[in-house]
Amino acid sequence: MEKWSGKPVSFADSTIIGGFWKTEQDLCRKVTVNAVYDRFEETGRFEALKMQWKKGMPNQPHIFWESDVTKWIEGAAYFLKKERDPELEAKIDELVGRMERTQDTNGYLNAYFTVVEPKARFTRRTDHELYCAGHLIEGAIAYKEATGKDNMLRVAMKYADLIDRVFRVEHSAAFDTPGHEEIELALMKLYHYTGEERYFKLAEYFINTRGTSDRDETYSFTDQEHMQSHLPVREQVTAEGHSVRALYLYSGMADLALETKEEKLTEICRTLFENITEKRMYITGGVGSTCRGESFTFDYDFPEYTAYNETCASIALALFCRRLWLIEADGRYADTAERALYNTVLSGISLSGDSFFYENPLAVDPRRNAFNDSRPEGLKEHLPILERVKVFGCSCCPPNLVRTIGSIGDYLYSTAGNTIFAQCYMDADTTLHLNGKTITLQERTEYPCDGKISWTLKSEGNFTFAVRIPGWCDKAELLVNGEKVPAAAEKGFVYLERDWKDGDRIELELEMKVKLWEGNPEIVDTCGRVAVTRGPLVYCAEGVDNDDTPLRDVRIDWDAAFELEKAEVAGREMPVLKVQASRREASKALYSDRKGKKVSFQLKLLPYYAWANRGVTEMDVWFLEK
Amino acid sequence: MEKWSGKPVSFADSTIIGGFWKTEQDLCRKVTVNAVYDRFEETGRFEALKMQWKKGMPNQPHIFWESDVTKWIEGAAYFLKKERDPELEAKIDELVGRMERTQDTNGYLNAYFTVVEPKARFTRRTDHELYCAGHLIEGAIAYKEATGKDNMLRVAMKYADLIDRVFRVEHSAAFDTPGHEEIELALMKLYHYTGEERYFKLAEYFINTRGTSDRDETYSFTDQEHMQSHLPVREQVTAEGHSVRALYLYSGMADLALETKEEKLTEICRTLFENITEKRMYITGGVGSTCRGESFTFDYDFPEYTAYNETCASIALALFCRRLWLIEADGRYADTAERALYNTVLSGISLSGDSFFYENPLAVDPRRNAFNDSRPEGLKEHLPILERVKVFGCSCCPPNLVRTIGSIGDYLYSTAGNTIFAQCYMDADTTLHLNGKTITLQERTEYPCDGKISWTLKSEGNFTFAVRIPGWCDKAELLVNGEKVPAAAEKGFVYLERDWKDGDRIELELEMKVKLWEGNPEIVDTCGRVAVTRGPLVYCAEGVDNDDTPLRDVRIDWDAAFELEKAEVAGREMPVLKVQASRREASKALYSDRKGKKVSFQLKLLPYYAWANRGVTEMDVWFLEK
């Protein structure tokens, strides 16, 4: 394995054949893509692209609406890339046509700043213009890749060229760096896709200028930390501020570090990853503990009932991880990507595929929400909602889920030099390029529901196949063509180097037992409590499965034996757990000087991502330890 | 004992001789009375009474400033009643003189509605005019009682007469009942003091009209529940809304029920007391769980870090209890009054006597406050402060503490028929009136630091002496003239009826062991946790005494042996506790699949009321149970 030279393997090189992600992708293609489209149509997001809105009309365009549209296009395009669909393509063509027709002759494109406040273009860094531009670029590349049509890409490049001139060349905008990052990673993608160096230079400019400009203002109610401009990026050693912005920036920084091989920037990316995963990430891979600024807070701060954990933030964390694993071979990046994807990201979408959570708390108490809902506006607290909804005012998460699920194959493999890294496990066929060779692999697995993964090679050649042993796995068995080989991992990977033959078979069995976890003693919310996982899945309990027993009072023994079974939850089959647990008997006294009598009962748990699909009910992840 | 006919025994009939409350009263007289005066002087509250403020001048009078002034006068007067002091009296005379000079000829008195918004008098029920009037009445009675001077009383009566005319007779105000209760109980007091029935009628009118008028509006950001006008008072069966308002109202309702002997209203008072003490009261006697509206929330809702628990609300709870114990002989009322007084009320004032808490949380995490303090205004959460301050913008609690401590003897005894009820225990000499007899009692005790209480009679006669056995006490020993008598309590009291002789001696020894308590399983915040009490005192631990060990991780065994010792905390001697406890070793991992190794250490605890007197440090009341 060579350091510094990781290369992504695009989802386009793989086809999800079966297993967990086949179900997710089919649902997303059949339901989510259309549901998000319909909601955006209804709410005027598509209409806005016509730029015919006038004062007094409904659906005034919002500063970030373009990003919703182009993120949906990006997601839909990932599905089109796999299977053409004239109807879906026509919908996108119509939207792209609107952009072509309404794009300013100088390249500018944003409905709000065209029909509502045309004089305010590029005057307020906090107003998401460049964030929208970033998503336009990503959508355009995806659409070109899917269909070969380059009209959206031309729109995006024309806009990018305007931005390059205004920001990097002429400095004629009123600010220097965007308040909501995203364009940095998008420009790096555009640079790689087009080979045009100016896009690299512009990305580099935005990243390097951040935190150095006195023209970069904040919202009145926020600060520079909120938008990661409190320090030059190479001095940022803790994850601060708005969590989605932070992780989009860090992803762009990782792209830049990979490209330039700069030691310092690489080290900062690693430091930020460690600050997040060792101090500021929920066990579900959720980040951004607070609704106040949707932001990171301080080390070991993990309130459960008010955990914000925006779906987009965990998507962004996975994006950051996928870049870090190109920089160095370390299984912890895929561990964290999986933690985010299998728990918080998927919690963001209902099992029916058409409803969404923006926030993903670790526990909910319907009594608290009911009380809060009964309060007048001025006396409400901000609480996560208890049931997913079809669309949000700020509806960034739904199309972000579409593009993430549509391109989930991006998380399968990476390469570096002569090594193929098997990062995350999915049932998929892949044909990838390695040192000039074309390698075809058939991966078969029920992961994350089962720990068996096999690969059958459909090519031959001398190369190294690096198999990841996840951090949660205590015991792994590895066979090559039926013969056991040592499964001792080095930073999370077992390296198998040989002259591979067509038909060679690698079998991995990850021991996937149910495990209890405790939080660091510095976490005030988890002291005395344990969380339950199996493989990468975090489990939770819901009142609806447990006779509405007060879940916070449930005690689980460290040595408890869990029963695993497949069961249907809201029509979806999944691995659920049962365990003998205990809780106190109901009692009348508010405070009692006697230790409450415990009763034993069977606690039922389900994967966290599947919570809240059967009505309003209590939910909890952290149980008392016994 | 006769039901329905309880009579209060005024603090004026007692003199605190020594013990716990002597220390509190001396400090209050020497420090607090003057400190509050000085802060009110500095902030313009006294100057405002001159009613010479004009636009552009500093210290614009606030709608509730009169209540601060008159509550301070009331408190100072309680001390004057015990010991005349020309200097203090002169200060009050000056303030009363200002009121006399600036009171409107029609009786109206409120600086804000005289110099700032004179046209808005009696137009907004949410603007505290009648609340201020109530405190004026209470202050005036106290001052007349202390000095014999009736000029403040004349001011108060003149104002009360205006209010009677405007509200009850003419209905010429823009609303019918006040948004912030207080005047109801004050009018009942004025009725008893003057014998003028119109004050009774006005109190009754305000209480009976509440919740029935469509002219009674709310703040834009609140609702009728916030000010207890969501229902007629006889239909209010749960404690709702702003906790101080609620408890001032309930106190007035109890006054009315006692006076009229109305069964329904009595039952409602009992129901509200039970809702509070069985569902909505912290173990420290704190009430009003949330800062949002300073209000009651829902059953079993006891967040610890954000517990609001306003000092005034616990004072008001004690006031309600003191009225309830006149309605019926039940020790639970004094139990609750003590819970409030010895914990949350006294937590409201520093051991130095000059600094105050408005909010009294059950746990604090200085990391959370430090982070929050670093946030820009728009991203801050409301958190309790960590160190007491000298004065607040809304500085109701400091003078409320002065009047509570000054008149603490009000909590000593009550009578009913031929029975003296010993309600709360203090080291005091008392001469009270019982059925035409004058009875002198010498009570000696170090309570709440020690469980021994003795009474020596300095009178003779046939009567019943009812000794309260607190609810927390499992074993009590009672001696009369050295001979053991059965200490079996009936609803919290042991009744000793005999022909008492001068020199008779009653000795009570309450077993005062350290006890652990658990919360009801429905309380999400206390599951798996225990609180420590000894007698009426709730204990807490502070980081400063415990090497900054993470207190939330501390585990206490239900069978642990506590060591009691007297120790100095910030210069005050008090009973502190030590116990062998355990906690996990510090760890690097954010989440660990291994049960953390425990280390045993000596946990030091101090009475909750003494917390936060030695700088910013972590504090916790609920520990993990082992």
UniProtKB/TrEMBL annotation, chains A, B:
- Domain Non-reducing end beta-L-arabinofuranosidase-like GH127 middle per the UniProt entry, residue ranges: 420-512
Which residue intervals define the domain Non-reducing end beta-L-arabinofuranosidase-like GH127 catalytic in the entry?
A: 19-409
Q: Which residues form the Non-reducing end beta-L-arabinofuranosidase-like GH127 C-terminal domain?
A: 514-623
A GO MF term:
hydrolase activity
Pfam families (UniProt xref)? Beta-AFase-like_GH127_cat (PF07944), Glyco_hydro127C (PF20737), Glyco_hydro127M (PF20736)
Is Oxidoreductase there in the keyword field?
no
Transport: present as a keyword of the record?
no
Which biological processes are named by the entry's GO terms? carbohydrate metabolic process
- Entry's InterPro entries? 6-hairpin_glycosidase_sf, Beta-AFase-like, Beta-AFase-like_GH127_C, Beta-AFase-like_GH127_cat, Beta-AFase-like_GH127_middle
Keywords from UniProt, A to Z, are:
Hydrolase
Protein name as annotated? Glycoside hydrolase family 127 protein
